[in-house]
Every structure is written in structure tokens, then in C-alpha cells.
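Supplementary Note 3. Input sequence used for the single-chain structure prediction.
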Amino acid sequence: MPRNNQVNVGLIGTGRLGRSYADFLAHRVPGARLVAVADLIPERARTCAEANDVPKWYDGHRELIADPAVEALVITATTTNHFEIVIDAAPSRKPIFCEKPLTLSISDARAMKAAIERSGVFFQMGFMRRFDSAFSALKSKIDQGVIGTPVLFRGSSRDPYRPSLEYLAPENSGGQIIDMAIHDIDIARWCMGEFRTVYAIGGVLAYPEMGPVGDTDNAILSFTLESGALGEIDISRNGIYGYDIRAEVQGTKGSIQAGYLRETPILVMTEAGVMHDVVPYFPQRFREAYVAQLDDFIRNVQSQSPSRITIEDGIAALQVAVAGTHSLKENRIVAVKDF
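The predicted structure, written as C-alpha cells, is reproduced below.
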């Protein structure tokens, strides 16, 4: 496909993240033309289409996939629907972008990979932190050898409030580790290689109402990597002060930290104290990373270039997250290869 042609995109899933993606595709990604959206909730699909001047909307993904005007697919549907959508989409051979997590089970993930390989369709996994300027710089400095050999990873992801209890149910979200820590896991893999073992602890510490749901609101993962390096990740639903996303990689010659909490680069200094604002939530913190990620997908489709984030990346991150979830439930160290 020539680089100067726009790609006609169909978006599947118009919930909170899907609406943002619709805006990006319609207004921020020059190579994309958003021509159709789909959602299981018809009113949501219609409203999203009208808000972005999209000519078509559907109440099912199959109709959108079959639309001859749609040349590429972007999947932002609920994670539990990813499997069915990708399996249905693969035979169309229309390039696919799929948000994280890939799915909730390793067996489904491997079936998705098999379907993609059978059809030969282009597939790109969505891990937007790799396109964030801070995390991209972190990776670049490591590759340049600035800190020598990486020996320790520390990641921290703290949401300012909990989502709905319906969303948090493990059968919908996969649980806190799969839903939240998978981003930190992907960055750790990207920077330092494959995981060997993981041990997770967690609890319901801030939101008692989550107890009956069967998930944690705070958790910590400790892990070893195949290189022998070490790591830890903490995730929290109650970072009530703001959206706090950070990572640090320590090497034999130094350390690199990525992330920030202050959104506007000003300090207010008065008799009451020294204050600054904070990042509200992920739409503000990673807005540009989401746009860059979609732009990369479209450019890859146009130039027929390979994806930098493959389905294998999605499976590997999910494998670690599933292993961590089992460790949390069984209170023991587990080997990632066993999953």
C-alpha cells in the first residue's frame, strides 16, 4: 500500500478507551481514515460514529470486518472479546491492531497466534508505553550501554481510583496483575529480557468492597530474569494523589529512571507550602503515546513493514502475568515456563 494513501480503519469497541482511539484515528493520525466503528451496545457505537463524523456503525464486529470499505482493524473491545474478534478477523487478512492484554488465558492466546500464522495477516500488539518519550528514552539509553549491564528493574503503577466492581471482577479484567502489571511486565521484558520466576503477594487493603469480587487492590511482584537480573513491580488501585507511573533500571555503571508525577512544569510556593499539580489519569499521561502507537501501526501497514510489537510479545507478557496471578493465589514462587 503506497505511503501517501490513507488506510481505511474500522474500530471495534467504543468504550472509554475506544472513544479516545476513535478521536485519535479521526483527527490525530494523518495516515488513517476512520470509516466504521462497532460495539455490542448499539447506542455507544452510534454516538461514537456521530461524534467523529464516521459514516458507518455496527452492533457487531463481524459486520464491520466484512465491510469492503474497511482495510485495517483496531480492536479496543473488552479483553474477554479479543479472542473471538481476532479469530473471526484473521481469515480476512485485514491488518489487525489489538489492545492489551491479548486475552485472559494462555490457551486462547496461542490459538489466536495459530490463526494469525495460518492466515499470514499482519498483527500488532498494543503496548503504548513503548511509544512514550520517557520509556523510549529509557530503552535507548540501556541499548547504548549508558548504565552498563542492567541488573535490577523496579516498576510502579498506581491508579488514582478503582474502576467499577463489575470491571474488576477477574472474569472480566483477568485480575489486577493481568490488568495492571502487564504494562510493567512488558517494559521489563523490553529492557531486560525474559522472565524466569515470579512471586506475588497482594491484598484488599484500601477498598473493602473488593473482597467479595475476588481481586486485590494492591499487589507486589518479585521476579528473576533469564539473565540472572532481579526485579520488582508494585501496583495499586489507590494512588489517590494522582496517576503515578514510574520505572527504574539499575545497571553496573549507573541507573535510569523514567516517569513523572507533575503534569504542569510549575511549582507554587507560598506560606502554605510548596505545591504542584499531578497527572490525572492515563488518558492525559499517555495521550501522545497512544497517538504514536496508532501512527506506527498505520505506517507499518502502508509500507508493509514488520511490527515492532508482535503477538509473541503479547503472549510472553500474558504468560508472566498469569504466572504471577497463580503465585498470588498459591503463595509460592512459580516458574514462568510452566505456564
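The domain at 130-275+317-338 is CATH 3.30.360.10 (Dihydrodipicolinate Reductase; domain 2). The radius of gyration is 20 Å.
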